[in-house]
Amino acid sequence: IGVTGVQTCALPIYCKIIKIKGDAVYFSIKNGSIISKSQLPVTMVKRFQYSFFQTAGSTPVIEVNYDSIVLPKYCFTVTGGMSYWAFAIYSSQTTIVQNYLKKLQVGYSYGLEGSYYFSKHWGGGVKYSGFYSSSKLTNMLHIGSAKDTSYVTLSDAIEMHFIGLYVSRRLFSKNKRHSMYDNVGLGYEYYQDAINSPGFSKLHGGTYALLEEIGYNLELNKHLSFTCSLSALLGNLRSYNLVDGSTNSHVSLSK
Fold this sequence. Notes:
- By secondary structure, this protein is mainly beta.
- Helices cover 4% and strands 62% of the residues.
- It has one helix at 95-105; strands at residues 15-21, 24-31, 34-41, 47-48, 62-63, 74-84, 106-117, 122-143, 149-172, 178-196, 200-219, 225-235, 239-244, 247-252.
- 12% of the residues are buried.
């Protein structure tokens, strides 16, 4: 079997298919006296010809029928990247406080998710994502209750954890190798802030949150894909618990 439409081959006469197994085409490339072997997904083949070398390419060119490609039903994803926590920073606050809060807004995220597609375009899944950021101020003047002064370190370490369900819609390119998807879901988000000011206390609470996510997916092979996505979580914390030493109090927030 010879091939004329494999994108990897600049000169078809130097390429020859060895076998087709699963969703991969295994082929050899001759460069002078050196013969090397490689493979590529079937979705990268545009057209092919049987008995190309035996018939000097006179056999009909066959276009690949991409509609016959079996689409994956299950998808498991590991994510990681940068996240931005959107909250108001007021101009009335000092420059030191504004810079401190801006550091808390930017952090890193990580997550796991699994989805099942019951049709070509529609499916659903479950998603977990985490967010972490921190900020610190050193050598801050602290005035105690007895009017004594000292220099202390102030810090916050923010954690947010979301788990929820979503509905997914995906669209494919002609060769099914590229796809775009849109996820919309609802879940629960847990918030925690470990505070050092100058003693240690912990603030934590939770709320329902909405998920909106759009992404691009590139199929590398049958079992592995590369994904780039942009997601947003929208939640409103109405109350939290404050643990300060041996004291535990519940605080309600204004709307």
